[in-house]
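Chapter summary example.
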Amino acid sequence: MTTADNLVYQVGDFKVNVIQRQVVTPSQTINVRPKTFSLLLVFLQNPILVLQKEFLLNQVWDDVCVEEQVLVQSIRELRQVFAPLDVLQTHPRKGYAWVVPVTQAEKIKIIPPSLFSKSRKKIIGVAASLLVLTMLIAFALSQSFSSSQIPKNIITVLPVENRTEGSTLMWARLGIMDQLIQSLQSSPHVQVFDVPYVLHLLDVAGGDMNDRVQLANRIFEISGSSLVVDLELAGSVNDYRLLYRLFTPTGQTSGVIMENQLDKVVENLAKIIAAKTDARLDLSHLNKEFNSNLVAEAWNKWSKGQTDAATALLKTAVTLEPDNFLAYQLLIESEQIQARWVQSKDNANNIIATAGQQQNDRAHVFYYLLARAEFALGDIEQAQKNLLIAKDLAELNFDSLYQAYITSLRGDIAQQAGDLNEAEGFYSKAMGHHQSIACPIGVSVTRLKLIDLYRRQQRNDLLVEQINRLKELIAKHKLPIELPNVVVN
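The structure predicted for these 489 residues follows.
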């Protein structure tokens, strides 16, 4: 162990334990992602100095080719860890500087082996062995129980029923829904589904959209959600009433929020839901304008099968509002459904540039969509680079759904390259992400990929097993998925 390795740095009331790679305060211990912690050490070893972005990328991400967005996200995470201290100063077009005093608080004492007697060495050796064994058992138990004993809270927010006087707020149907979703951030124990995925769930659910109780029950059946949020906006300008019902698999609660401003309506409801689910709150974006009517109208067109009209409306929306992230996401996804890969790639690049400037939490989504387009267009190398960026950002945002999507696409790339064993590994990891959020649709799609993989490998025992499991899943959750027509020799 080097001298630098056994340091504990002091930053205000924060202690940075280098060995345990943790940040400790008088009230809590904060675990920091490995790459972000490595970046922290670079700053602590070079306080006050302006460190260029290229230098930081080379120091921390020397083992992989990444873009500046990854650095921006780690900088943002460090600022959150050390809040309310303003520890980092941005120097435009140059880099960043650590501006808070740093001291070496203490060193962890390491007793030289020569100070021990042989008998004490034996005793301590046995104790150490028992300690290691105990830790290994504890770790194994924690891993085995983590997914089954501590399931994630899965939040699904439904589109808003708009019953305001005059009905001029057509945008509220998706706009308020999206604002609430963005206010409720995913965490290690919470997954918040984004708007496009909820719309996909509604397509799969089918049935009567007006019967909200039946719809909520169907959402529970096909998604593994633990909370379904149903909203109805009434009243008039400066006198809004939001009626909400919070469905759980075992019951429901309801209430009314009355405010003269819509952002206050969303803020109050977000706080109620966060208290019930342990979701992280991020209310910073509520000062921005809500989505325009164009996005809601585009969804109406799309739900009626008028795809060209819907795409045209979304193109107009992103032209008028270049930082409308929901409009961009819906546009890119609609283009990819229609196999308009070049257009979707261009739009993904456009919004990534904007998202990078604003440090947007949806950046991992757009990197994933960009990689999908690049893969479809045959640019495998660039797709793999962007998937690594998407993976890092999705982990930072605790987004299990997109971690599953990203890992599954990596499996598709491996399978196309003929590396079937690697593809199997990626698909198995993707299924684990889907299972962590109890997502039967995602598990079913991944099983379909494994079925195709095992068919190609002629591994008939695993092929039959996956077909039987998929059959059970479709029957249990009443999923509109057709079983593949596979002949087993």
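To summarize the output: The mean pLDDT is 82.
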